[in-house]
């Protein structure tokens, strides 16, 4: 699931020929009725609704250019068009009936039976290219395992049982390329702390994040043997002899030998870079941690103007991510500001790509929240622990509000029809005021 090659030639498009309304089931809460139309390209059927037409045309061009590159690397051609279903925002995407998978942390999904790719626009075309090509790699993987027959291949997939580092790592490498800051950070830290996983650990240890380390392993393979060998491994894996045989045949190395070679390459690359660096704790101290603040991760920290408080998002003692207020000196939690667990006014806090902010007076705090089929800007009185304002924004999505110096306006990123702009809202009236950036 979840980020590239660029734009395709316009001649690959057959035009945006509207079709009758398309519906994909009735197994989720529906706040909106989506009347889908279809753009047919050479290799894809791109489903969209009118509000996102312009962005969908761009996505269709991106998809065809991505296909040209991936089909060459993976030595495979689609025998029929693959579906790509686009939503204008994360809130719309969470209503999809194509798959039960979805939520704040999901950038896109490709379901295994019909090879349907589903993803939302985020306002960032770089992110769109990443997700589009990541999910397209999954379409190729499923198509290879099913021998080009949509709805088939489950017996082969179950028999081979490709691990997540194989599937997701390949998709990350072929969509991000060899260099990614998050992957490099994970490798550097693992090399320094002696926690670099083996391929066996990546396969069986659920604590190992398969995206970053899988990405790094495939990047090493691509650098040493060339990207085309990835297609050879994929094709060889879709047989009764499985993944181990495919790697040995393509690389002349067992997975254990490959793991040792990869470890040597990572340590040779990163350990010398750390000689002239020192650890962050020499110049800074950690504030939010599981021991002091609860929760296994702490996201979107916002410091109060006087530097005494810090607002942050964490899952706390529940499965849901809530907003907490902590002491900025000790990291100790003072109280929970928003409990999204049982409150339909806070169905989801935008904790992946957004953050809240304190007003200049340090008493008000603004944050974007999902409420039914839209995002609202919510104003909290931090001192009195209550909501004092809610601004309904007539857009597809909202992230990252920030206060004006006088505390009377909020600037925020708004998403509409797949594109993003900066907007200003008046805190007093809740009226969307004007667009300040395009």
Folded structure, characterized:
This protein is an alpha+beta fold and 438 residues long. The chain folds into two domains: 10-272, Orthogonal Bundle (Neutral Protease, domain 2), CATH 1.10.390; 282-437, Neuraminidase. It has twelve helices and 18 strands. It has helices spanning 53-74, 90-93, 125-145, 154-160, 164-176, 181-193, 199-204, 210-225, 228-237, 242-251, 255-270, 290-293, and strands at residues 37-40, 44-48, 82-87, 109-110, 117-120, 299-303, 309-314, 322-327, 333-338, 348-349, 357-358, 364-371, 374-381, 386-392, 397-403, 409-416, 419-426, 432-437. A hairpin with a 2-residue loop joins strand 16 (409-416) and strand 17 (419-426). The radius of gyration is 23 Å and the shape is globular. Residues 1-26 and 434-438 have low confidence and may be disordered.
Strand content: 15-25%
Approximate helicity band: 25-40%
Biggest β-sheet: count, sense, barrel?
A: 5 strands, mixed
CATH topology of the largest domain: Neutral Protease, domain 2
Compose a concise summary of this entry.
The protein has 438 residues and is α+β, with helices and mostly antiparallel strands.
Topology:
Blueprint: E1 37-40, E2 44-48, H1 53-74, E3 82-87, H2 90-93, E4 109-110, E5 117-120, H3 125-145, H4 154-160, H5 164-176, H6 181-193, H7 199-204, H8 210-225, H9 228-237, H10 242-251, H11 255-270, H12 290-293, E6 299-303, E7 309-314, E8 322-327, E9 333-338, E10 348-349, E11 357-358, E12 364-371, E13 374-381, E14 386-392, E15 397-403, E16 409-416, E17 419-426, E18 432-437
Parallel strand pairs: 2-3, 3-5
Antiparallel strand pairs: 1-2, 4-5, 6-7, 7-8, 8-9, 10-12, 11-12, 12-13, 13-14, 15-16, 16-17, 17-18
Helix pairs in contact: 1-3, 3-5, 5-8, 6-8, 9-10
